[in-house]
Amino acid sequence: MSPYLLELATLMAVFSVVIVVPGADLALVMRQSITRGRRAAVLTSLGLGASLLFHVGYTLLGLGLIVSQSLIAFTIVKWCGAAYLFYLGYRSLKDADRPIAPDAGLASASMQPISDAKAFAMGFVTNALNPKAVVFFLSLFSSLVSLQTPITVKAGYGLVMAASLVLWFVGVSFFFTIPAIRDGFLRAGRWIMRVTGFVFIGLGLKLATERMHG
User: Fold this and answer.
1) For residue 117, is it within any domain?
2) In a domain, 214, yes or no
3) How far apart are CA 124 and CA 126, in angstroms?
């Protein structure tokens, strides 16, 4: 077996576990699926994939090392990420007071429409403003990828990881927009939005209290 294929297999074994663990990304895609519909959820998933490529890109350029070793840079990214999660939590709690009719269909006419660009940006920003992702990708590549591996091959690893992330969340998007499943969530819409809001706020608090080497 090629050493590069072995490296990729090892990376994906670790990464596959990480992407299915519930977190802000999953909460966001679920929220988009239930309240905005399949198109918005898929575009948010693409934004998450693009953000992963962003993380891989600066890691390969060595910028991730700067952020992971600089208390100021880490703190700035951390507080920006926490603030955005607080904002998502606030919006979810605010949206909980809006009626969400189960018969509104996948377009959810009772909600304000969201543009494709905004749906994509929400996915990108949610993941990009996470300093733990900086440390994760830096440590992942440092521990599992050889220094002798060409940067083009490492970039290829990033593409495979991004594609896997997008496929996972697109699958989540399709699952939660199946009419029977989505209508079931919509019947408990206000409670779902409140729970999602508190999840975002809780994740924001967790991120805000994260220590650089914690």
Assistant:
1) yes
2) no
3) 6
175 within domain boundaries: yes
Q: Which two tokens stand for residue 139?
A: 């440590």
Three-state SS across 144-175?
A: HCCCCCCHHHHHHHHHHHHHHHHHHHHHHHHH
Which domain does 42 fall in, by range? Answer: 3-10+24-208
Residues 6+ positions from 93 with CB-CB distance below 8 Å: 193, 194, 197, 198
Question: How far is residue 21's CA from residue 23's CA, in Å, rounded to a whole number?
Answer: 6
pLDDT digits (tens, 9 = 90+) for 10-46: 889 888 877 887 788 888 998 898 888 899 999 999 9
Whole-number Å distance between alpha carbons of 173 and 107 = 14
Q: Count of domains in the chain? A: 1
Cα separation, 74 vs 116, whole angstroms = 30
Q: Is the pTM of this model over 0.85?
A: no
Question: Which residues, including other chains, have CB under 8 Å from residue 68's CB and lie 6 or more apart?
Answer: 74, 134, 135, 138, 212
Phi, psi for residue 188 in degrees, rounded to 5: -110, 30
- Answer whether residue 19 is part of any domain: no
